[in-house]
Design a protein that fits this description.
The complex is a heterodimer of chains A (394) and B (333). Chain A is mainly alpha-helical and 394 residues long. Helix content of chain A is 64%, strand content 5%. In chain A, helix 4 runs parallel beside helix 8, helix 4 runs antiparallel to helix 11 and helix 6 packs antiparallel against helix 11. Classes of the chains: A mainly alpha (394), B mainly alpha (333).
Chain lengths: 394, 333
C-alpha cells in the first residue's frame, strides 16, 4: 500500500517527470557511465575469459562472436517486431540475402574488397525488404507472418538450387575484412601490437602469454578481432536505433503498432512507416549476414540459413522484451550463448528452448527487459483493475 | 522450363496433385477452424499431424512387425481402419493438449495475439523435439531396447513396413488412375462433407459458428466459448489424424520434422481458399496441390515449394480474402 501511495504522489505531481522504480538508475549521467563501463567490459570479455562464464567445450571468442551476431540480428528484428509490431517469421531470408550478396561480390563472381561489398549488400537487402514489404504490408497483419515464413524458405531453396550461387556447396573463400598492421597467419608479430589473454587458476587471474590476440588481424585462427568488429557495428547500430526511435519516426511506429486506424486518422501515413520499419530491419539483417559471410570461416551455404534460425531470432526478441533495444541485445546473447555454455545438453537444446518459450510468454509475456512504456502500461492497468475492484466491493 | 513434360503428363500431374491437395485440405481445416474461432494461426497444428503419421506407422509395426512387405490397398483395409482410429485419437489428444497447455492459459489472460503465437511456436518446437528425442525419453524408463522398433534412430525417417501397392483402375489421358488416388481424394471429400454438415446442422456446430461471428454476443446467448474452442481443436485434430493416415498410405514414411513444410502448405491452402471457410480449405488444398505439381513439372521438383509460396503471395495480393472468402461465422460456413 505504501509503495503504491508514493507512486501515486509521484505520478500526480506535475513538476516531477514520471520516474518510478530504481530512481538513481534513471538519471542520465549514471546510466551513461554504466553503459560506458558495460561497453568496455564487453570488449574485454573474451580476453578476460572469466571463470563460470567461459565456455569450456567451444572457443569462447567464437561463442562471443556468435552472441554479438545474434544480438545485432535481434536489434534489427526488434525494429520490425518490437517497434512496428509486424510479425516477421522469415527474417533469416534477409540475413541470407546480405550474406550471399557479399559472397557473390567478394568471392564467387567478383573480387571486390569487403568494405565495398558491405554497403552494396545492405542496399540489396533493403531493396529486397521493400520489394517483399510493399505488397504484403497491405494485407492483414497475421498473414504477414506466413508470407515472411514463405519468403525465408524461398530464399533458402533458391540458394540451394541455383548453381550461380554455389548451390548446396555454398560459397567459400570469402575474404575477411582488411587487417591493420602486418599479417602473416600464425606468426606472433602480427598486427600493430598483441594483447595477451588471461588464464584463471581457480579465482586467481594470470596473464597468459601463450595466447595473444593481434590488434587488428582478421584470420581463421582467432575469432576475437571479428568479435570486436561486430561489437563496434552493434554499438553503431544501437546508437542509430536510439536516434530513430526517439524521433518522429519512432513515435509513428508506436502509434501504428498500438492502433493503426487511430494513427491513420491522426495523419500518420502508417503504410509508409511500416514499410520503413521493414526496410530498416531488413538492412540490419543484411548487415549481419554480410558480416557472417566475411566472418572467421569465410564460408556460407544454404544450411546456414534454416528457417529454424528465424524462430531463434524471433525468440530472442520476445524473450528479451520486444520494443526494448537492450532487451533485444540481451535476448540475442542468451539465445546464442546458453546452448554453447550448456553444450552437454545440446541434444535437448531445442526441446528446452521450446518449453522455455512457452513458460516465458506465460509468466512474463513482456519479456525480461520490457520497454519502459510497456511497464508503465502494465502498472496503469493494475491500477485500473484495483480501482474497479474497489468499485465492485462498494 | 519444361512445358512438354507438363503437357505429356498432364492427367497424372493433375490427379496426383489432387490427392496431395486433399491431404493439405484436411490439415488446413485445423488452421482454418482455429483461425475462424480465435483469429490465431494455430502454428503447432503441423505437429498434431506429425504425431498422427507416427501413430499410423506404430500401429502397422505393432501388428505387422518390421518385415517389409508390399500389399494392395484393399488387402490392408482392416489394418488401415485401426491405423485411422489410432491416428485420429493421437492427433485429437495432441490437439487437446495443445489447447490446454499452449492456448487456454494465455487466452484466459487476454494475451495479445503475438504472444499466443510465440507460445504456439514454442509448443511446436517442443512437440517435434519430443518426437525427435523419443529414444532418449524411452531411455529414462529403461525401455529403449523393448521399444527399439518404435523409438530407435528417432531423428531419422521412420517408414511404415507395409507399403501400399497402388493398383491401376482406369485411364484418364495417358495416366492410369490408381485405387490409392481415388481412395485419398474420396476420403478427404467425404470427411469434408461430413464436417460441413456437422458445422451447419448440429447444436455444437451452431455454437462454433456463433463464436466465430461474435464471441461476446455468443457468450451472452449462453454459448460456452471454452467448450467451443476445445471442440474446434478436437475437430481439427481428428481431421489431421485422417490426413495423417492418407499421407502414410501415399507416402509411407514420416519424420520428426515432417509436419513443418506440410503445415506451412496447409496454412497456405487455408488462406488460398479463404481462411475460416471450411469448403475453402478443401478447395484451397486441391488448387495448391495441383498448382504445385504443375509448377514442379515446369520448373523442376526442387522448386515446388517456391511455386506454392509464390502462389500464396500472389493470391494475397489479388484476393486477400481467398477464393471463397472468409466466413466461418456466416451461415454458409
Amino acid at each position: 500500500m505504501s509503495a503504491s501511495g508514493t507512486e501515486d504522489r509521484m505520478v500526480r505531481t506535475p513538476s516531477q517527470p514520471a520516474r518510478f522504480d530504481l530512481g538513481f538508475l534513471q538519471s542520465r549521467s549514471v546510466r551513461l557511465s554504466m553503459i560506458v563501463v558495460g561497453v568496455i567490459l564487453a570488449y574485454a570479455l573474451p580476453l578476460i575469459r572469466p571463470p563460470f562464464l567461459t565456455t569450456t567445450d567451444s572457443d569462447f571468442g567464437g561463442v562471443m562472436l556468435e552472441a554479438a551476431s545474434f544480438a545485432l540480428v535481434a536489434v534489427g528484428l526488434n525494429i520490425v517486431v518490437g517497434y512496428a509490431g509486424l510479425l516477421d517469421l522469415g527474417y533469416v531470408g534477409f540475413y541470407a540475402v546480405g550474406a550471399y550478396t557479399t559472397g557473390v561480390l567478394t568471392s564467387q563472381h567478383a573480387h571486390w574488397p569487403f568494405l565495398l561489398a558491405l554497403p552494396v549488400a545492405i542496399a540489396v537487402t533493403m531493396v529486397t525488404g521493400v520489394i517483399l514489404g510493399a505488397p504484403t504490408l497491405r494485407v492483414r497483419g497475421d498473414y504477414l507472418a506466413i508470407v515472411t515464413l514463405g519468403f525465408g524458405e524461398i530464399i533458402r531453396i533458391v540458394t540451394l538450387n541455383t548453381e550461380w550461387l554455389g548451390a548446396a556447396a555454398g560459397i567459400k573463400d570469402i575474404p575477411p575484412p582488411p587487417s591493420i598492421g602486418p599479417n602473416q597467419i600464425g606468426s606472433d608479430q602480427d598486427g600493430i601490437f598483441q594483447i595477451p589473454h588471461l588464464a584463471w587458476h581457480g579465482l586467481t587471474p594470470l596473464i597468459d602469454n601463450q595466447h595473444k590476440t593481434p590488434f587488428l588481424v582478421f584470420d581463421v585462427l582467432d575469432a576475437i578481432p571479428y568479435y570486436w568488429l561486430l561489437l563496434t557495428v552493434l554499438l553503431i547500430v544501437l546508437f542509430a536505433d536510439f536516434l530513430i526511435k526517439e524521433s518522429r519516426v519512432g513515435r509513428a511506429w508506436e502509434a501504428t503498432r498500438e492502433d493503426e486506424d487511430a494513427a491513420e486518422l491522426m495523419g500518420v501515413p502508417t503504410f509508409k512507416y511500416k514499410l520503413l520499419a521493414f526496410a530498416l530491419g531488413a538492412a540490419i539483417g543484411g548487415l549481419a549476414g554480410s558480416m557472417l559471410a566475411a566472418g572467421q570461416a569465410g564460408y556460407i551455404n544454404p544450411t546456414s540459413f534454416l528457417i529454424l534460425l528465424s524462430m531463434l531470432f524471433l525468440a530472442a526478441v520476445i524473450i528479451g522484451g520486444a520494443g526494448n533495444r537492450w532487451g533485444a541485445v540481451l535476448g540475442g546473447v542468451l539465445v546464442a550463448y546458453l546452448p554453447e555454455r550448456f553444450r552437454a545438453l545440446s541434444d535437448w537444446r531445442l526441446l528446452i528452448f521450446g518449453v522455455t518459450l512457452m513458460v516465458v510468454v506465460y509468466f512474463r509475456p513482456q519479456g525480461i527487459l520490457p520497454p519502459r512504456r510497456t511497464r508503465r502500461a502494465i502498472r496503469a492497468q493494475e491500477k485500473i483493475e484495483e480501482l474497479e475492484g474497489e468499485g465492485v466491493d462498494v | 522450363m519444361d512445358f512438354a513434360f507438363l503437357f505429356n503428363h498432364f492427367a497424372q500431374l493433375t490427379i496426383t496433385g489432387l490427392a496431395l491437395g486433399a491431404i493439405y485440405g484436411l490439415v488446413a481445416l485445423g488452421y482454418t477452424m482455429v483461425y475462424g474461432v480465435l483469429q490465431l494461426i494455430n502454428f503447432a497444428h503441423s505437429e498434431v499431424f506429425m504425431f498422427g503419421t507416427f501413430a499410423v506407422a506404430w500401429v502397422v509395426v505393432f501388428f505387422h512387425g518390421t518385415g517389409q512387405t508390399n500389399q494392395s490397398l484393399f488387402g490392408t483395409l482392416g489394418l488401415l481402419g485401426l491405423c485411422l482410429v489410432a491416428a485420429m485419437l493421437t492427433s485429437a489428444l495432441i490437439a487437446l493438449l495443445l489447447e490446454r497447455v499452449a492456448y487456454r492459459p494465455l487466452i484466459k489472460k487476454g494475451a495479445p495475439k503475438l504472444i499466443v503465437l510465440i507460445s504456439a511456436i514454442g509448443a511446436s518446437f517442443s512437440l517435434a523435439e519430443v518426437m525427435g528425442l523419443r529414444d532418449r525419453i524411452a531411455g529414462w524408463f529403461g525401455l529403449q531396447d523393448d521399444l527399439a522398433n518404435y523409438v530407435s534412430q528417432a531423428r531419422n525417417v521412420y517408414s511404415s513396413p507395409v507399403t501400399i501397392d497402388p493398383k491401376g483402375l482406369f485411364d484418364i489421358g495417358n495416366y492410369r488412375v490408381t485405387d490409392v488416388d481415388l481412395f485419398v481424394i474420396g476420403a478427404a471429400v467425404l470427411m469434408m462433407v461430413g464436417l460441413d454438415t456437422f458445422v451447419r446442422r448440429t447444436r455444437l456446430g451452431r455454437g462454433i459458428r456463433s463464436v466465430a461471428q461474435d464471441p461476446e454476443a455468443a457468450a451472452l446467448m449462453g454459448v460456452n466459448s471454452t467448450r467451443v474452442i476445445r471442440a474446434t481443436f478436437l475437430i481439427g485434430g481428428l481431421m489431421a489424424g485422417v490426413a495423417a493416415t492418407l499421407y502414410m498410405i501415399r507416402i509411407g514414411s514420416t519424420r520428426q520434422n515432417a509436419g513443418f513444410i506440410l503445415g506451412v502448405k496447409a496454412f497456405t491452402a487455408a488462406v488460398l481458399g479463404g481462411i475460416g471457410n471450411l469448403r475453402g480449405a478443401l478447395l484451397g488444398g486441391l488448387v495448391l496441390g495441383v498448382a504445385q505439381n504443375w509448377g514442379a513439372a515446369v520448373f523442376g521438383t526442387n522448386w515446388q515449394d517456391v511455386v506454392a509460396f509464390v502462389l500464396l503471395v500472389v493470391i494475397l495480393l489479388v484476393r486477400p480474402t481467398g477464393i471463397l472468402g472468409e466466413s466461418l461465422g456466416k451461415a454458409r460456413a
